[in-house]
Amino acid sequence: MRTDQTSKSSIYVIFCWCFAACGGLMFGYDIGISGGVTAMNDFLVKFFPRVYERKMHAKENNYCKFDDQLLQLFTSSLYLAAVVASFGASKCCSKFGRRLTILLASIFFLIGAALSASAQSLWILIFGRIFLGFGVGFGNESVPLFLSEVAPVKRRGSVNIMFQLFITIGILIANLVNYGTSFLHPHGWRVSLGVAALPAVLLFVGSFVIPETPTSLVQRGHESKGREALKKIRGVEDVNEEFEEIKEACEKAERAKGSFWEMAKKRSNWPPLVIGVMLQVFQQFTGINSIMFYAPVLFQTVGMKSGASLYSSVITGAFNVLATLLAIFAVDKAGRRMLLLAACVIMFISQVIIGGLLLGYLKEANTLTVGMGIVVVVLVCMFVIAFAWSWGPMGWLIPSETFPLEMRTEGYACAVSTNMICTFIIAQAFLSMLCRMRAFIFFFFAAWILLMALFVFFLLPETKNVPIDAMVDRVWKLHPVWSKFMGDHDEAARKTAAAVELV
Ligand code: BGC
């Protein structure tokens, strides 16, 4: 019997992992696909003839050949839509549950993929990106939450990083698909954009099979269904202890709950809010997405041919996946701070050297030598590897473990939307910044990396091996800066204890 139960449980866990795969894959695929598509001549001729003309006269200006607001809008519109959607998604998640939110995400994705793959005009193309953005907003809010709530407590950290791992696999698949479709003229780009529908179909079917999470059911007043769901997830009949814990956490959260603004006014909630928001700003201002979105374009800027630049993006994409695997094993051993700080050093060095090389050797109208081009690709890989073991996964992991339960969905939504806003800014501004700032853009990102290293050093506490609900006592109250914000936490705890006694 025991073996049966255990195997039922592991089949379910494996299913959840596959499910996470689809959510992460879809997001990653969208990140990775636009850069390659915008580097394809067939695509440029159809939608951006002016950019194509400029590219053909590249010798006139290396740094500005792709500078076009509409071209950047093609990439960035998705993230703007995701910002708007993440607020609706957070409401949908608490009112109607994680499962329905995930189902909606997959429907948005399907519509988006169909519109963009069949687009005959630029506006339909952008309309398709907006639907994909709704999908990203709904998916990124609900899938990680779903995963944290169904994962066994001891595996929460690694399961969370699994989501990031699948984002990176999605980016790599997009790079590979782009490389393959760049040989299919003139409609290869349609295949690239249409393939996004595959993980969306899996997610759509999956959302009918998975159960709602026990926490969400209890929070919405369906206690007995919550208990049944927990039994199904764990594969055992006796789930009393865990179920009581879930109930208690939900009741505690219910008592402490107010509007988002009421909670944000409480000084003791500021530390996780500041950290959740700043980690997202910093994650994006490492400059990672100038590479993820525009690597093929960037490599063409330094003089590579279209094929070589797509090929080089595949290489950076592969390193991104491998180094994320490293994070899964290192995060609970080396700790969050150590990984972030070590990465800052490597990312700083690579940005400064890339900037220095381009400043010295890439003028307006020449190309780098092959050797120099290879050095740039190696430096970009170093940068991506360091990001992938640190700011990539930690940007999502730390906010998911530092908010108190009563503001977890709202706090996490705040982090997701800050991430999307900053991603939008980079997507919309990078090519224009590259045109105006030239090689100095790399020094700009290096300066941000310096700032974020100082932030981590002085303000980010270590949360390795700390249970989520013990953060206040074991982390915030012991921190030299954040402990000063904890006064109203004790007061609120006293009031809650008094209320419980009255009941
Ligand atoms: C970031 C994305 C980035 C990706 C790269 C994610 O954590 O949020 O913006 O493109 O990592 O792997």
Order of helices and strands: HHHHHHHHHHHHHHHHHHHHHHH
Characterize the main sheet: none
Strand content: under 5%
* Ends distance: 41 Å
Average pLDDT, all residues: 87
Structural class assignment: mainly alpha
Q: How many DSSP H or I helices?
A: 23
Q: What is the radius of gyration computed over CA atoms, rounded to a whole number of angstroms?
A: 23 Å
Shape verdict: globular
> Helix content range of the residues, please?
over 70%
What is the tally of beta strands? Answer: 0
Q: List segments where confidence is low: pLDDT < 50 over at least 5 consecutive residues.
A: 1-7
Provide structural commentary.
The chain is mainly α. Helices cover 79% and strands 0% of the residues.
Concise description?
By secondary structure, this protein is mainly alpha-helical. It is built from 23 helices and no strands.
Provide keyphrases for this structure.
503 residues; mainly alpha; disordered N terminus; binds beta-D-glucopyranose
Q: In terms of topology, how is this protein built?
A:
Blueprint: H1 2-38, H2 41-47, H3 49-56, H4 69-96, H5 98-118, H6 122-150, H7 156-181, H8 188-194, H9 197-209, H10 214-219, H11 223-234, H12 240-256, H13 260-265, H14 270-285, H15 288-301, H16 306-330, H17 336-361, H18 370-388, H19 391-402, H20 408-437, H21 440-459, H22 471-474, H23 487-502
Bound molecules: beta-D-glucopyranose.
Beta-D-glucopyranose (BGC) is lined by residues 31, 164, 167-168, 171, 283, 288-289, 292, 320, 392, 395, 419, 423.
